[in-house]
Each structure stands twice: as structure tokens, then as C-alpha cells.
Amino acid sequence: MWVLAPQLWEGLLTEYGFRLETVDLFPHPDESASVIQQLLRARRLPDQPARVSSRPRSTRAPAPHAAVGVGAILLSEQGILLGRHRLGTLELPGGSVEAGESFENAVIRELAEETGLVTRAENVELLGTLVDHVEGVLRVTVGALVHSWQGRPATQPDESVGDWAWYPLDQLPDDLFVCSAQILTAWRPDLPIDHPPAHFTRCAATHSDPRGVPSAGRRPCCSASTPMTRA
């Protein structure tokens, strides 16, 4: 004997504009009879506006013309976390965003891959988007503030950045990577860091003051884009 499961009924009814409320099963009084009745109580949903479709222009992938990455600020009592790239620059944890990732997940992954530290999405606060150009290539960098994490930073095998250390904000080293410098001055405009200009758009979800201290609420909308020049 085959009977549609309540989940299947619910899917069918929802497709046709109903909400399934209860399902009652009534077996035949004769236990040998392979008959069962179902009483479904459903309510018609209010008419919903028609869905508007969307589609790509074509099946061809868009031509790549931008590099998209993230950089994470971790602030402890000892200062901010920086690592040294094999090419000599000092950098925040971060890297390229992979296909299918959110910016928060990219921060979580890069932090684990580069430093061994573990955090969760609810601990990652996106600060905003920095846009500049390098040799004609559009570069988009999303800065983030990580409020809490687990573990101790350590050099990871096969990573290009290591020798992680904490640096006090009033004793930041020279030779910061440009993207890291841009993120730091977007977060703390008072920091005396020189870097090439970038265009900064603050995220709507940002809820820290410029010193990195969480406030009571979140701003409901994005602030205007701000050109940043530190050179």
C-alpha cells in the first residue's frame, strides 16, 4: 500500500497556494483491508504577487577584470596581528575570495589557512569595500574586524605569509602591504599610515566605532563612498 507522505502533500499544496495545517490518518476497521484514508486540512494562502524572473545575458562567463580579496583585523591587548609575506611586506590575514564564498566565509577560511586561528561568521564584522587599480586591474578589497577567535597564531605549512606577531597600534612597522594599510586607515582614520589612494564604501552592517569598540546597534544603511588618500 502506497500513501503520499505528509511532506509530499505539503509540497504539492504549497505549490498550488495552500498551507497544510493537519494530516489525519483513518485506517479501515478491518485490519486485513489494505485501505487507509487521509484527511488533510489546508488553508488557501493569500494571493501572492507574481514572481519576476531573471536570466544571464548569455551562457558565456564574463571576462575577468577584477581581483577580489579580504583582509582581517584581529585586535588583542598586544595590538593587531600581522604576518610577513615571503616578498617582505607585513600583512593582515587575508587573501582572495573563492567561488561560492561570502566575504565572511573567506575571512574564516583565510584566517585558518594562514594562522591556524578559528572563528565563526557571527564574529566577523565587515567594515567596507576598498577599490583601487593596479596596472590597469581593478582591485576590490573587503576589510573585516574579527571580534573573537580560538587558538594561537602560528606559521602554517605552504603558506606565503607567516611569522605572525602582535604589533601595538602606536608602534606599527614599515613596509605594510598596501591593501592592509588601506584597511587599517579605513578602520582607524587616525593611524599615521601612508598608502596609495583607494575608494572606501562602509558596510551597512558595521557596528563598531572607529576605535574597534562595538556599539549598541547597527547602522540601518550604507554611508557614502569616501575617497581615501594617504601618500
From TrEMBL:
Q: Which CDD domains match?
A: NUDIX_MTH2_Nudt15
Keyword Heme annotated:
no
| Record keywords, A-Z | Hydrolase
- List the Pfam families hit by this protein, alphabetically: NUDIX (PF00293)
Does the record bear Hydrolase in its keywords?
yes
Q: Where is this region: Disordered?
A: 207-231
Name of the protein in its database record: MutT-family protein
Tell me the superkingdom of the source.
Bacteria
Source organism: Streptomyces griseoflavus Tu4000
Q: What does this protein need as cofactor?
A: Mg(2+)
For this protein, the record's InterPro entries field holds: Nudix_hydrolase (IPR020476), NUDIX_hydrolase-like_dom_sf (IPR015797), NUDIX_hydrolase_CS (IPR020084), NUDIX_hydrolase_dom (IPR000086)
Any one GO MF term held by the record is: hydrolase activity
Nudix hydrolase domain: from which residue to which, for each copy?
Answer: 63-190
Q: Which family does it belong to?
A: Belongs to the Nudix hydrolase family.
